[in-house]
Design goal:
The protein is α/β, with parallel strands linked by helices. The protein is built from eight helices and five strands.
């Protein structure tokens, strides 16, 4: 069996990072139309997610915001992703794993994951792996749909939080207003992110200006 691994939400300031892994005997067995999740409409992603999870081995490794903050005290974000990718690969026990490389150096990324996976599995890491390998595309769909559902649960509970990414004006407006009103970040925010630190700095400067 081969497997593909990809993650969603690595750079988000809200919500979990989700790593998806999908296994198959041959990529030709995967559903027609499998491609990088970012190139698919939400409706098509959901349909393919149902096909993939209903017919192939799969798992997700979900790392909540608070856990990301804790782990970043011990390691870089790239090393955190390495560990999560390796955990995903081990969970399926495939003989060959294809990864979307989360490092400017593909070989460095490959070797780090391979060291944690151990013997018995050949690891291949490539930039834009979700566009190169259908099995990685399948994993990207599983990861993206899982994270989208997690964000939707947060919206139901907390309101208009946006996509959760720092580039999203809705997300930043929500974060700014929440910090202004509560003096702390929401529980689902990654407080180790520079985005959050900058908003707290601005709040402190504003408060000092009141004196």
């Amino acid at each position: 069996m081969i497997c593909g691994v990809d993650e969603a939400g690595k750079g988000a300031v809200f919500g979990p990072m989700v790593v998806g892994v999908v296994g198959c005997e041959a990529e030709e067995d995967l559903p027609a139309g499998v491609r990088d999740s970012k190139a698919l409409t939400p409706k098509r992603r959901e349909a393919l997610y149902a096909e993939i999870t209903g017919s192939f081995p799969w798992r997700v490794v979900e790392i909540p915001a608070a856990e990301i903050d804790r782990l970043r005290q011990e390691m870089t974000m790239n090393d955190l992703v390495v560990r999560a990718h390796a955990e995903a690969v081990r969970s399926l026990g495939a003989g060959q794993a294809f990864l979307d490389a989360c490092d400017v150096d593909e070989e460095r990324y490959r070797s780090k994951v391979a060291a944690l996976v151990g013997d018995g599995c050949e690891v291949v890491a490539r930039h834009h792996g979700d566009a190169l390998f259908p099995v990685v595309s399948a994993a990207s769909i599983v990861a993206k749909v899982t994270r989208d559902r997690a964000l939707e649960d947060l919206r139901v509970e907390y309101g208009a939080i946006g996509s959760g990414y720092p580039s999203d004006k809705v997300t930043i407006a929500y974060l700014k207003d929440y910090i202004a009103g509560h003096g702390t970040a929401p529980i689902f925010a990654r407080t180790s992110w520079e985005t959050v630190a900058r908003l707290f700095d601005r709040r402190r400067q504003t408060s000092l200006g009141d004196f």
